[in-house]
Specification:
The complex is a heterodimer of chains A (947) and B (245). With 947 residues, chain A is mainly α. Chain A contains 49 helices and 1 strand. In chain A, helix 3 packs parallel to helix 5, helix 7 (108-120) packs antiparallel against helix 8 (124-138) and helix 37 (682-688) packs parallel to helix 41 (750-765). The longest helix of chain A is centred in the last third of the chain and has 33 residues, at 912-944. In chain B, strands 1-2-3-4-5-7-6-8 form an 8-stranded mixed sheet, with helices on both faces. In chain B, strands 9-10 form a two-stranded antiparallel ribbon. Chain B has helices at 16-19, 29-38, 86-100, 116-124, 147-150; strands spanning 3-6, 44-47, 53-62, 69-77, 106-112, 128-133, 152-158, 176-177, 187-194, 199-206, 229-230. The relative contact order of chain B is 0.14. Chain B is an alpha+beta fold and 245 residues long. The chains are: A mainly alpha (947), B alpha+beta (245). At the A-B interface, helix 1, helix 4, helix 5, helix 14 and helix 16 of A face strand 1, helix 1, helix 2, helix 3 and strand 11 of B. Strand 1 of chain A pairs antiparallel with strand 11 (229-230) of chain B.
């Protein structure tokens, strides 16, 4: 049959794979393989269909068969690329392309593919070697630049030692200057060239390049190159020259980039920024003169710009601030006068508050003077501009509220004032706006929220949070798209123990794509504490899984764009893309969510090897990551007085914000428990795992073993945990310490585990475990154990007293169960539950009678049973109490109490029935959460309570 | 006071204050990376001295022969930084680059015919209607403005390479063309928001076919590299099961 005919027959396989019909692709592959049993492409496509149908074992066989044949055809290689990616075998992919390229060294396309495979695997050293060879074989400058770029990236790789770095930069430089064409023929090559010069501190060379006509012309239109130019000028001390350039741009080209204004200001002080200790009067005089000149310059621009652009006036404020810092100001009253002028001119801009925030940290008379300006301003309004001005007045005044006035009385007055103005504004301004627009008055509601949260912090009275919730709910009926109000509400509902309402609002914001990484912490932070997974309600678990989509997208897509940037020679973007990929791949939020999700799985699923083995391996992968915190905590603006914490900090659940320390500690606890519980030791894992392993951390000394690191205790890390979480850690540590020897003794021999795995695989797929031969003499239990079982010792007190010790769970729960807010009680209950689930995971092995008998662990099991029944008894008590409490949550009285607490907003005009409705929703949500949590505990008790 | 700088991939981590706006779409990472891997010099950000992002513009250069031009794909400004002229600043930048680097004949953009404020603004900046595109915004449904809600104006502004202003015409409002078939897989539609004036635009972005030669993405759990896969324990990846008890 002709090649064309074969191609026609293969086409449907691609179509099926493209549309996700893996089954149909498999059928077609099998049919064609009968006719062409040796066809590599069909085999590769079948392997792909198998991988995508989760038939890992079968695909491995085919995959290795194709790899052994060392394919060179483009189609086969592409198909195999997807197979290997699916299996996480990036290193094998590199090998495959390298083999192919070796066979056809003159095939440029293949060479490029091999280069890209290395890029994808971030193997810069071999990428560089291939690019060098390509440059020689195909004589294309582009490949020289690929070599240069790869060398730079190798230098920047975390694993490259410092002295090597220098050598690599020099090499990159040497390669680049050897180019037959100058780098400035393209801005991107020019950019790469400059980045090398800067790394090597060859500032004169860089200056020469940049100061040439072509260099100037590139910088005039290319922002990234111009950034380098600024840096070079700075390093060369050309501050004054830079200032002149900037002046020219501002004056002639109407450039209003703030960086230009800063350059002018920096030039003004260039005579005294050299770090001299004592300045001569002469130098100071020069600077005074400069300041005067600069002021005149900005003032000229200000006259020209009028209200069109605010940069020149702000620049005068900045100039004044620095003049004061250097002690060269001649008029102490000027700053305040300028601020006044700014406020008068731009007070109606929404950004006014943020613009002058860096300058209003005033004290004494000056503060009084500034406050006087604000006090004198009118706080009535009829138009949108006037309203914005009033909002700015409130924000500015609030910022400078002295600590002595951050009191119950003052804040109550302010909250009332903001609410009144808010309701007033809604009547006067923005009444005609479409529902897709936000209301200009929204910020007043946010100000009131800030005030109410401060009141809550001052008094610990939840009533202020009720009020804030009701007010924000109201604001959202008037301004549906007010996302800041919505985010604030998400946080407040979580503090009120109504996570389902928080989730509802969060979902309206429709965070997606990269926002799943940056915003999901608003809803998923410590979500296992509020999840009802134990009752089968997977709402939060699903949310966790959904948020992980972005990481999949990152691993699948970003690498391709790094390659595209190489192809399109956009060198400036390559390090950026790599950084982006790494930040997402090693996102702290990703693994915090992972941790929460595991906790929910334990609540929900049957705790056994299925859950434990898999999660153990995943957690071990996570443990060595260097995490990046991409969580967006700045989106929520804070309008708190400067002496208070910001709104975000004030509204962390349980008053703690989990960071890398929290994650590390939780990982240690869970890995250790799972490790003991699991039959997979390192040797078994090595055999069973497919795909690349994570890179080793070079910053960890080799003699600091994994096990040592698991038991290492860091007080710093523990600071990110609540007191109850710390007690959980102590319980789990003591438990693991106690049971470790018994686990190690009773764990089946690795060979036995592998033999069993192989048997299961054979049963399931018809293929034995690849790379493992069942030892012929095996009786299924592996080699016999000779040593005596360890003697059973009594459990440590930290374990036995955890549930009913004087300072432990039971006492803690009694302490908090009747508090006004159910939040802490639920947290303690969640900790009690989590400790129990860890206990269950840790003791699964000893539930098996055969294991107990064989290893003579009867006495141990008796201790375990007694701990378990004690724990269950206390958990049941907690559950009963929570249930009782939940019943009291949603009653006519509780709603009435809620409404009464909201007097501030009801008295200012928000409808009583509206507040009552919010009360109903909030109390119902609270009841459901508490009730569900209580029932979940009962369910866990009945699942694992039996001895 | 805003800093003009180039758009970087990591800006995606901090553009929430801009993108939570209803008219600003958050696309997949590939969308932004595609622009950055091809036209990094035409995409820029406005940033406050505090480091907070204020707005951004994404653009590209495309077209054949005399149709070679700069195109505004997305321009948006965060709520709190509106009415400061940032959109105009970014448009100026995009025009500068389209003119001096890409040597385009003109810059173009699409705007809803009903959006008078935006059209006025663009006209004030030297743009004029080149043609009307039928049912461009179809999927949003016909609103108060009827036809004007769903049709778009393609607006253009000639650059220095077109001194005779051949790329525009005075009777553009009467030139009507049909939208390309929406089922065309190479066409991605999206809404965007032109800052300052609450402008709604909807554009069509051509994504070249050759950019995505791969089969569609495999399901979530198959490839999470470095994803540990156990030989014989495939059941672990099955959906969660309820308690046995």
């Amino acid at each position: 049959m002709s090649a064309a005919a074969l191609e026609r027959q293969i086409r449907p396989i691609y179509d099926a794979l493209d549309t996700g019909s893996n089954k149909s692709a498999l059928v077609t592959c099998n049919k064609l393989l009968k006719k062409y049993p040796q066809n590599e492409l069909i085999k590769a496509l079948k392997a792909l269909a198998l991988v995508r149908s989760q038939k890992i074992e079968e695909s491995l066989v085919l995959c290795d068969e194709v790899l052994e044949a060392k394919p060179t055809s483009d189609a086969t290689l592409t198909a195999m690329m997807h197979v290997l990616r699916g299996l996480g075998r990036h290193k094998d992919m590199v090998k495959m392309f390298e083999e192919a390229y070796k066979q056809q060294p003159l095939n440029e396309e293949l060479a490029a593919q091999t280069f890209f495979a290395n890029v994808r695997a971030l193997q810069w050293k071999s990428a560089q070697l291939i690019a060098t060879r390509m440059n020689k074989s195909f004589q294309d400058d582009r490949y020289l630049y690929w070599t240069v770029m790869s060398t730079m990236l190798q230098a920047e790789d975390h694993g490259t030692p410092a002295q090597m770095r220098e050598i690599l930069y020099k090499l990159a430089h040497r390669l680049l200057v050897s180019s037959p064409t100058p780098s400035y023929i393209s801005a991107e090559r020019f950019h790469l060239h400059l980045s090398i010069l800067l790394k090597l501190d060859l500032n004169d060379d860089a200056h020469k390049l940049l100061d040439s006509p072509i260099g100037k012309s590139i910088c005039a239109t290319n922002l990234s190159c111009n950034e380098f130019r600024r840096e070079v000028w700075k390093r060369k001390g050309l501050v004054r020259e830079e200032g002149e350039l900037a002046k020219n741009l501002i004056l002639e080209k109407n450039d209003r980039n703030w960086l230009e204004f800063l350059s002018v200001i920096e030039a003004t002080f260039s005579d005294i920024t050299g770090g001299e200790e004592k300045l001569s009067e002469e130098a100071l005089d020069t600077v005074r003169k400069n300041v005067q000149e600069t002021r005149e310059f900005f003032s000229k621009i200000e006259d020209r710009d009028g209200l069109k652009d605010r940069s020149s006036l702000l620049a005068q404020i900045e100039l004044e601030k620095r003049s004061r810092a250097y002690g060269v100001t001649d008029d102490q009253a000027r700053l305040c006068a300028l601020l006044k002028e700014y406020f008068e001119k731009f007070g109606a801009k929404p950004s006014c508050f943020e613009d002058i925030l860096p300058y209003i940290d005033l004290e004494g008379d000056e503060l009084a003077q500034w406050t006087g300006v604000l006090d004198a301003a009118r706080t009535t309004f009829e138009t949108e501009d006037e309203l914005r001005r009033v909002i700015n007045i409130f924000k500015l005044k609030r910022y400078n509220l002295p600590p002595s006035e951050v009191t119950h009385e003052v804040e109550t007055k302010l909250a009332t004032l903001y609410t009144e103005k808010y309701l007033d504004a809604l009547k006067k301004v923005g009444t005609e706006l479409a529902s897709t627009e936000t209301q200009p008055a929204d910020d007043l509601a946010l100000l009131a929220t800030n005030s109410l949260v401060n009141l809550w912090k001052l008094t610990a009275d939840d009533g202020y949070l009720y009020t804030a919730a009701a007010l924000l709910e109201y604001a959202l009926t008037r301004s549906k798209q007010a996302f800041l109000a919505r985010l604030s509400l998400v946080r407040i509902y979580r503090l009120l123990g109504a996570p389902t309402l928080a989730l509802e609002h969060y979902r309206i914001l429709r965070p997606k794509q990269v926002q799943l990484d940056t915003l999901s912490h608003y809803i998923l932070s410590r979500s296992s504490n509020i999840s009802l997974a134990a009752t089968g309600d997977l709402t939060f678990g699903t949310e966790c899984v959904e948020s992980t989509q972005i990481y999949v997208a990152n691993s699948q897509e970003t690498g391709d764009f790094i390659i595209r940037a190489f192809t399109a020679e956009k060198y400036s973007q390559i390090p950026e893309f790599i950084n982006f990929e790494e930040r997402l791949e090693n996102s702290l939020q990703r693994d915090l969510v992972k941790m929460e999700h595991i906790k929910m799985r334990l609540q929900h699923e049957n705790i056994g090897p299925e859950v434990i083995d898999m999660e153990l391996i995943e957690l071990k992968f996570v443990f060595d990551r260097v995490h990046h915190d991409n969580r967006d905590t700045t989106i929520l603006p804070s309008y708190q007085p400067k002496s208070s914490s910001d709104l975000m900090t004030q509204t962390h659940l349980y008053g703690k914000y989990e960071g890398p320390g929290f994650l590390r500690q939780m990982l240690k606890v869970y890995i250790r428990v799972f490790q003991q519980s699991s039959d997979l030791d390192d040797t078994v894992e090595e055999k069973l795992l497919i795909g690349d392993r994570p890179k080793l951390r070079i910053d960890i000394p080799p003699d600091f073993t994994f096990q040592d690191r698991l038991v290492e205790r860091s007080e710093e890390d523990l600071k990110e945990l609540t007191a109850d979480e710390v007690s959980l850690v102590e319980f789990a540590t003591a438990l693991s310490d106690w049971l470790e020897v018994y686990h190690n003794h009773a764990r089946p021999h690795p060979l036995a585990v592998l033999a069993e795995a192989s048997k299961q695989t054979q049963l399931k797929t018809g293929h034995p475990l690849k790379g493992f031969e069942t030892p012929p003499s095996s009786n299924g239990n592996g080699p016999k154990k000779d040593e005596e079982p360890p003697a059973c010792v009594e459990p440590p007190e930290a374990v036995t007293r955890f549930y009913d010790g004087k300072f432990h769970i039971k006492a803690r729960f009694t302490e908090v169960k009747d508090a006004t807010s159910p939040l802490e009680a639920q947290h303690v209950a969640a900790i009690a539950q989590e400790a129990f689930l860890l206990f269950v995971a840790e003791t699964v092995r000893f539930k098996n009678q055969t294991v107990v008998k064989q290893n003579k662990l009867g006495a141990l099991v008796a201790s375990i049973k007694s701990i378990r029944s004690n724990a269950v008894a206390i958990l049941k008590e907690i559950s009963t109490d929570l249930l009782k409490r939940s019943e009291a949550e949603a009653t006519a009285e509780s709603r009435k109490a809620f409404v009464e607490e909201c007097s501030i907003i009801i008295s200012t005009g928000i409808d009583h029935d509206f507040v009552l409705n919010v009360a109903k929703k909030m109390t119902d949500a609270r009841r459901k959460t508490l009730e569900g949590f209580a029932k979940g505990i009962t369910r866990i008790c009945s699942n694992y309570g039996g001895n | 006071m805003s800093i003009t700088r180039s758009f970087k991939a990591s800006d995606m981590f901090k553009f929430n204050n801009i993108n939570l706006d209803i008219w600003t779409e958050t696309y997949g990472i590939g969308f932004y990376l595609n622009y950055l891997s091809r036209w990094p010099d035409i995409c820029c950000v406005q940033e406050a001295p505090s480091g907070r992002m204020m707005g951004y513009v994404l653009g590209k250069a495309e077209g054949q022969g005399p149709e070679w031009h700069g195109h505004v794909t997305a321009i948006t400004v965060a709520h709190e930084y509106r009415r400061l002229g940032l959109a105009r600043k970014m448009m100026n930048f995009l025009e500068l680059v389209s003119d001096e680097i890409y040597k385009g004949f003109f810059v173009d953009l699409y705007v809803r015919c009903a959006n008078k404020i935006a059209i006025d603004m663009y006209e004030g900046m030297g743009y004029s209607v080149y043609r009307r595109v039928r049912e461009y915004y179809g999927s949003l449904g016909v609103g108060k403005g009827g036809r004007d809600e769903e049709d778009a104006f393609d607006m253009r502004k000639p650059l220095s390479r077109d001194p005779n202003r051949r790329s525009i015409r005075s009777n553009g409002r009467d030139m009507i063309m049909a939208t390309k078939s929406r089922s065309d897989p190479s066409t991605v539609c999206f809404t965007l928001h032109a800052a300052a004036m609450h402008v709604q635009l909807r554009l069509i972005l051509q994504l070249e076919h050759d950019l995505s030669p791969m089969p569609p993405l495999p399901p979530l759990h198959t490839c999470r590299p470095p994803f540990p896969i156990l030989h014989s324990l495939e059941h672990h990846t099955s959906p969660q099961r309820p308690h046995a008890g």
